[in-house]
Amino acid sequence: MADGEQCREEQYAKLEDLRISLDRGGAGEEEGGDGEGEGEQGGGFGFSLCFWIYLSGSARPSSIILKQTSESEDEVPFLVLNEENKLILLPLVLIHKEAPSSENPFPWTDMFHTAAEMDCPLEKWFHIGCQVAENYMRLHVDGKLVGEKSLFVLSSEHCQDDMKKIILVGNDGNLGGYIYHVQVLPISASISDQFVKNPPAKLSLDNSCILDGVEEGGDGVWSIVGGKASCRRNFSLEVVLLDAFGRSVHREMEVVASLLYADSGTPVEKTRDDAEAPLLTSCDGLEYPSTDRPVMLLRGRATFKLKISQLSSKCDNRLFRVCFHPLHGQRYPFLEAYSCPIRCISRNRSNRTLGFGKRSLSTTVLLDEIHLLKASDGLQAIRDVYGNGQLKASNQSDLKCSPQSKHFKVEDNRSTTEAVANGSSEQRENQEMGINNFEGTDSGPSDSESTDLKDLDSRWSQKSVVSDVAIFRYCLESTFERTMILKQLIASASNEDIANFAEQVCLYSGCSHHRNQILVSKHLVQEGDDTWNSISRKKQRALWMDAVSEINKKFMMVANSASRPLSGQDLEILHGIAGCGDDLGREEFDRMWYWLYPVAFALSKDRINRIWKCLSPKWIEGFVTREEAESALKGPGGLQKTGTFVLRFPTSRSWPHPDAGSLIVAYVGTDCIIHHRLLSLDHRDRDSRLLQDLLLEEPELSQLGRVVRQNSSSCAS
Questions:
Q1: Which of 86, 166, 377, 520 has the CB geometry, 3.0–4.6 Å to 416, for a possible disulfide?
Q2: Acidic residues bias: where (predicted)?
Q3: pLDDT attached to residue 23
C-alpha cells in the first residue's frame, strides 16, 4: 500500500492504493495492514479476505473493484461491479479451472462467477467478505452469505506455491472508493464476526433533529433568511459522527462549516475584500466567520448556529450548500456532510413596521388583515390546557393562515380556545394542504374585514411582565433560543401573561402558528420533568431500555391512546431522535420529549385520534421517517400509482417549532414526483365526516399506501 503507515494509524485508505500479497502460508498479508491473519492455517488451501468499502456517488456499474495479477498472467478481475450494479466474485488465476483470462471478453457475467442479488450501495460503508478455497468460493456482504459456487482446482499439489504468486490490487481510481480495516485471514475465520468488529465512521447531517430556521420546500430546496445583519436569521444544523451501524462515535474531532455553490461545489467567496464572510456563526451574541470557529464533537454530535450573509439573488440566483468537515487531517468524502440546496432570501419587511421604542404598530399593518383576540379568551385557553391536561376542540373553530400575508385571521366571535384547537392546522405557506383547499391558497381578506382600533390600542396598553425585547427575540431567534425564552417565561409568568405573550408573538411574527406551542409550554415542561425524574431516579443517566416503559406510559396518557401503545419501530425512531446510545441523559431525553409531546398532543384531538386508533386499514403506520415514506411510495417496481399517499409526523420538527406535532401527507403527484405537504385540519363539529373520507375527497389523493416495516411487538404500558 502506498500509504501503509497512515493506514496503520487511521485504517482509511484509497481503494486504488490497496495491494494484497497472498504469500504467507495461505493466510496472506495486506501491505501496511495490522498483522492479523499471519501464521499457518490449519490444513488445506484457502483464505478469507474481508474489508469495509465506501464507493462515491460517481461510481458507475461495470467497474473493477479488485483485480488479480501474477508474473505469468495479465491482470484479470477478481471482484467487480457488473452492469446491473451488483457485486461479482470470480475464481483465482493459477488455481481454478474456471478462472477468467485476459482473453475473456466483457461482460463479466459471461464468466464463471458468484454474485450478490442486491444492488451495491453508494456513499455508504458496507462490508465485503471473500472466502476462496480449493473447491469453492463464497461472497459475503454485511456479514451475510450472498453467493457461493463450487470450483475445480488445477493442481492441488501446487496450490500453495501458485497462490504466493498472486497479488490483489485495487482499481485505478474510476470508482472513487475507499477501504477500511482490510484483513486477510485463514479460511476458517468467521466473516460475520469480523463484520461486527471495529466498524468505520461517517459524518452526517442529523435530519431527525429540528431544522431550526429552515423552510423546506416541496422540491427539496431549503429557504433561509439571510443578507444584511439587520435582516438575516439564525439557523441551526446538527452533525453526527456515526459508525456503520448507526451508533454514535465518541471521538475528539473539531468540525468546521463552509458555504459552497450547490451546482459546482466551489466555495462562495466574499463580494469584496472588506465584506463579511458568506457564512457566519454566532457565539456569545457575536458573529464570526464560520471557518474561524470550529465546533468540537461532544458524544459524537455538534450543533452549528449559522447565518448567511450572501443572498442567492446577488449570486445569479444560484443555490448554496453548507459543507461540514473536520478541521484537521486528510479530507475524506465520508467525513464530509452536506446540507440540502439552500436558497438564501431576504426578509420582506414592507408588510409591517415595528415600534421598538413603544408598543405601537403602523396602522396599515392590521387594518384589513388581522382580527385581534381578547386577552380573556387567551386566558381561558390556557386554563383549558392546564386544567384538563389537553385542549378541547370547539365546534365554532375556523382558524386559517392566509398564504399571501401569512397573518392569522379570526372572526370576532371566536375564542383563543377555538383557535388553539386548530393550532396544528395553521401551516407553512408553501407546504399547506387544507381539507377545503388542497394547495393551501386561501383567498385574501375582503375589504370589509377590518380591525377595531380601539381593541388594538387597549390590547397593547395592557400591563405585562414580558418585555418587548423578549417578544422580539422570540420572533427573530432560532428554536433553541425560543426554548430558553419559554422556560424562563413559564417559571415566573402567570397564565394571563403567557396568553398575552402568545398573542403578541403571533402578531409581531405575522403568523399564528406559534400560539399553540407557547400555550402548551408549561404543561410540556412539567410533564417532561416528571417523566425524567421517574426514569432517572435522581441519577444523571439511565438505561434506554429502562426508560422505554415510562415513555410509552406518558405517550398513551397524553395522546389518549389506551388501545395503541408505541411499537418497536416507534421506539427506534425516538431512540434516533434522542441521539443516545444504550444510556440516556437529560439532554438526549429533552431532545426526544420535545418531539414526542407535540405529536402525542396532536393525537389527542378527536379527529386525528380516531384515525390513529384505526388499524384496519392502518391509516397512520406509526412514526415514519421521510425516507420510509418515500420508499413506500416508490415500491420495488417504481413509483406507485398517482394519488397514492401515506401519513407521517415530520421527524425534523420539535417544540417550540410552530409545525411541531403536525401531520404530513406524502403522495405521488400527477407530475410523477413525491410531494410532502403539511395537513391543515378543520375540527368543526358540524362536519361529522371522518378524516379518512375528507382525505380521499382531495383531487390529488386517491388511495392509501402501505409502509412495509419489520414485525415488532408493541411496548407494554
A1: 377
A2: 28-39
A3: 64
